Every structure is written in C-alpha cells, then in structure tokens.
Amino acid sequence: MKLSDHEINSALRDRLQMPTGRHLYAILGTYGALERYERVSLSQALGADGKPLRPPVNLNRALLNRIPDDELKELSENEARRSQSVKQRLAEEFDRLLVEELEAGPFVALKQVELVFAYDLELNYLRTRGVNQKHILLLLPGRRDGDRITLFHEASPACHRTLPAGVVPENHLWELVQ
Q1: Minimal CA–CA distance to 47: which of 55, 58, 39?
Q2: How confident is the model at residue 1 (pLDDT cuts 50, 70, 90)?
Q3: Contact between residue 50 and residue 16 where contact means Cβ atoms under 8 Å apart
Q4: Most C-beta atoms within 10 A of its C-beta, which of 2, 27, 158, 163?
Q5: CB–CB of 108/137 below 8 Å?
Q6: pTM for the full model?
C-alpha cells in the first residue's frame, strides 16, 4: 500500500506499541525517496516510549567494518574459490550485528542492505530477531509489482531481486508515495 511519510510513521508507531508477535517491517521506495524519508520523516518518528527512533544502520558498511582488514582482504581475494566461506562469514556477522543492535535498544532500522541479497544471506535472522519487543525496520529500494516485491528495481534487470513472500507480513510492508 502506498502511503505518505506521515501515514507510514503513524502505522510504524502503532506497531511499535505491540509488545508481542513478529516485528519486522519494511518501507519500499526509490533510493532517493528512501533517503528523503530517512532524512526528513524517520528522523521525526517516535517510538512507543515517545522518544525519537535511532537513525538507520548502513548494513553494508556495518558488516564490512566488523571484519578485520586483513581477513576482509583474504576473503575478497579468495571469493571466487571460496564463496561459501564469504557467505558464512557475512551471515555470522549479520546475525551478531542484529543481536547487538537490539540489545542496545528495542528498535533498529537497516538501510543499504545490498550485501544481504548479493550473498543470498538468510533472511530468517530478521524474522527470528524481530520478535517480542524487538523491532526491525528495513528501508528497501524496491517496488510492489502485483504480488511480488522487486528489489533494486532502479538497477539493470540482472541486479533485480525478489523479496520472498511472507518474510515481511503484508500489514508491515509500506511503499512510499513518490
């Protein structure tokens, strides 16, 4: 459903007040619309406690920063031969990052999530961590195409990805009005 920034903030605040259940949310839009929403509207959004929400975490940068430079260099040099090693290392850091962010506060927003989809990381980390007073918001560059969610729709078709059905509940998925 396409909503204004204000409508999304209102829906999000309502969901943040629910103490139990699955708490994974997503906002779809172009990169420009997501950046504007983050800068203008998300910065004004309030949590269930009435306090401003923490700014989004750049997931790509956060994942790469968690891996020491020498290990990152080795992983990138050997990626073609050992792609599963790279994927496993990123998956471990992805889960640890979610745990740490949610220990720091009950809400985390994630932006710049390309590595998750480029390496086909397990999305269940999001589903299992975003429960019972722990809320995760994804800012996803994408659009709804009928029943499908096409991610990275501004890139060439070879870069498009589909958000698997059921990862984010339908009533927790909002699309920005452009």
Answers
A1: 55
A2: confident
A3: no
A4: 27
A5: yes
A6: 0.92
What residue ranges in the chain does DSSP mark as E strands? 2-3, 24-29, 57-58, 107-111, 135-145, 148-151, 161-162, 173-176
For residue 100, the 8-state DSSP code is H
- When the pLDDT of each residue in the chain is averaged and rounded to a whole number, the result is 91
H or E segment to which residue 92 belongs:
helix 83-104
Give the tens place of pLDDT for each residue, 140-155: 999 998 889 999 999 9
Helix axes 69-77, 83-104, angle to 10 degrees: 140
Banded model confidence at residue 80, pLDDT cuts 50, 70, 90: low
First to last CA, the chain: 12
